[in-house]
Write a structure and sequence with these properties.
single chain; alpha/beta; elongated
Length: about 170
């Protein structure tokens, strides 16, 4: 008799998990890297490949790593917002040109403007993979000690910028 309740119990557990899943925002995928040190990297500067930028170069600063690519449609949506945000000089923004050709990235920045303090090339996507990038654009807020504190999946919106990113930046800069 008790064996008859096993399928019912499994069904109820599945319904609970489905109900929880339906209440969550599908764009908010928790990153296992939040609260952990950002992966080490060394990458050439897009317009000066002889120069290398590393994670160590950014220690002591709160900064944003923004992954983008010239082939990325959603990056065009986000770009005007980044152009406005960079005018505030709130934090350095490092652009990670993800799986792109250098000349395509350079043309894209020349056409739409360059909101970045520095742009690094991730030609083979290894840096993005180490950061857990699902697709571009994605952004990572990194604190002075090099720890990832926030991940934005998809393009920033004015709401995400004002209500999530800026308050966290202010907190981390104290």
């Amino acid at each position: 008799m008790k064996k008859a309740y096993i399928p019912l119990g499994i069904f109820v557990v599945l319904l609970v998990f489905l109900g929880i899943g339906l209440t969550r925002d599908p764009r908010e995928i928790p990153s296992p890297l939040i609260g952990k040190p950002a992966p080490d990297f060394s990458a050439p500067v897009l317009d000066n490949p002889a120069l290398q930028i590393t994670k160590q170069d950014m220690l002591g600063k709160v900064w944003l790593l923004n992954t983008w690519a010239s082939w990325c449609v959603a990056c065009r949506e986000e770009h005007p917002l980044l152009m406005e945000f960079t005018k505030t000089k709130t934090i350095p923004i490092v652009g990670l040109d993800y799986k792109d050709k250098d000349q395509d990235g350079q043309k894209w920045l020349a056409r739409f403007g360059n909101p970045y303090d520095v742009v690094i090339a991730d030609r083979d996507g290894r840096i993005g993979i180490n950061f857990g990038v699902y697709g571009v654009p994605e952004s990572f807020l990194i604190d002075k000690a090099g720890v990832i504190r926030y991940k934005q999946i998809g393009p920033f919106t004015p709401d995400a910028l004002q209500n999530k990113l800026l308050p966290l930046i202010r907190e981390l800069q104290q």
